[in-house]
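hey can u check if this looks right to u? its 318 residues, i copy pasted from the old doc so theres a chance i mangled smth
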Amino acid sequence: MKRFSITEAIAEPFRQAGRRPMATIIWGLVLLAPSVLAFASLIPLLQEMAASGAFEPGASAAPFDGDFATAVQFHLWSQLANLLQLFAALFVTTAIFRAVFSGRRGDGAAFLRIGMHELYVAVVAVTIFIGMMIAMVAAVLLAVAIGLALSGTPDPWRTLIYVGMGVALAVGFLALWGRLALLAPASLRYDTFAFVEGWKLGRGQTWRLVGVLILMFLIAIVVGIALAMVIGVVVMLVGGGLVMANPEAMLTWLEGLPERPYLLIGLGLMLLLPIAWIHGFFQLLSTAPFARAVRDLAAEAEPAAESANSADTTPIAD
């Protein structure tokens, strides 16, 4: 049985980010667009709140206290941003799948499209979400039932059983997640709702997929720590002198930022491209390894199927 390479799967996000830096930035911009649009629409509301003293340190009332219309407006924009964020993640995820399957071939639109592939991925994602929620509820109910049944078991055996149940549930969740993560990229690979095809590709690959998930998690932690350290160094170099010279002035400046939304916009524009690249890379990290696994496994499955078909159709000599 052919197995995909864990090393190649984990290296795929870095390979794509290095091969397509502009596409990575564009993907990040698409992911950031809903939040930017929502924040821009809330600028007048933030100005009104700042004028009313809602951001003052000694303000006793809540920001929306007694203003139901303002509260509704704020929550509507927040929910709209969340909905647009889901669509942005759908388009970017599908674009990353296309980029992985395309190899070295480029694309002027950063592989972003609106078509049947997006519909495939959306339906698969919603189905997986509903199925995972049902599975989690069933697992919790089963765990509660077993816990009640073992309530009379003396310690330390009861504690050990509970720990073992938790570990088993965590490993089972990771194994299921790894198998289901192949369904969306397989839908692009086979140009259909590839529930069956994607599940079959993961046959015999479960523990390797679990390993990919664990490595993805560890890499995300390391990259996050590295980014935090870089940001900390930059803040110290830029603002360290001001903090040491006049700490109170620095704190006053930071506390006054909510009252100056246009300054926040200016700072955001300065950091837009680096932040966009970071968003694009993390989306690559969460999706590209599984697309690479599907690409390798599907490429090995097709010659095997063709060989079997040719063997079935070969005439038998008399």
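DSSP finds twelve helices and no strands in the chain.
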